[in-house]
Design a protein that fits this description.
mainly alpha; 8 helices; PrsW; cell membrane; hydrolase; Peptidase_PrsW_arch/bac
Length: 222
């Protein structure tokens, strides 16, 4: 059991450490980051409950609508809503790069609990593929969400970027889930998509870091 939990949790911690260490300018309070991780972990259960009820009640007759459109919107909405409700106005959210960290943290909280539950059901044989795909994709969706959330808070186009913080991860998630529906051909499409997703998200990290430097300069902290 201990080995299984370690394998399930390790990818999330590794990815979060990567994005945390990319912030070379300042240290973010660990307590607030832990809170956002816990929020992400907590929403796993209502999301799974909603998905279970809708499946049992056969609300959706089209698998694409259920597993691609609805699941993507549901998961990203919960993450976006909690980020906005609990983190967006928090005093510790005080620079553009913070959005990256909080977005990654809440997404990895969700992905880690989901990963634990999945490995408990199907065993550690799937751990490597889970780390490469679901865990890392959730982290990258969170990075994109957090980037636009930071843009929303620290630019004048608040509503535009607030909507992008929700819609951009939803679109990426829909594409990801849609690829999984391709059956035998899914892996051939997933590899270039994941390369694109990493490139896209890391570009947002780089841009957020540049915004942070400008922000600190404007605040006379550099």
């Amino acid at each position: 059991m201990f080995i299984l939990l370690t394998v399930a949790i390790a990818p999330g911690l590794a990815l979060f450490s990567y994005f945390y260490l990319r912030n070379e300018m300042k240290t973010e309070p660990g307590k607030t980051l832990l809170q956002s991780f816990v929020y992400g972990a907590a929403i796993t259960f209502p999301i799974l409950f909603i998905q279970y009820v809708l499946t049992e009640e056969v609300v959706f007759t089209n698998p694409f609508v259920q597993h691609v459109l609805f699941t993507s919107v549901l998961e990203e909405f919960f993450k976006w809503f909690l980020l906005y409700l609990a983190i967006y106005h928090h005093v510790e959210f005080d620079d553009p790069y913070d959005g990256i960290l909080y977005g990654a943290s809440i997404s990895l909280g969700f992905a880690t609990v989901e990963n634990v539950l999945y490995l408990l059901s199907y065993g550690v044989d799937t751990a490597f593929m889970r780390a490469l795909l679901p865990v890392s994709s959730h982290a990258l969706f969170g990075v994109v969400m957090g980037y636009y959330l930071g843009k929303s808070k620290f630019t004048k186009r608040t509503k535009k970027y607030l909507w992008l913080a929700f819609l951009a991860p939803v679109l990426l998630h829909i594409v990801y889930n849609g690829i999984l529906m391709l059956e035998d051909a899914w892996l051939y499409v997933m590899i270039p998509f994941m390369l694109f997703l990493w490139t896209f998200a890391l570009r947002k990290v780089k841009m957020a870091h540049a915004h942070l430097i400008i922000h600190l300069y404007d605040q006379n902290k550099l």
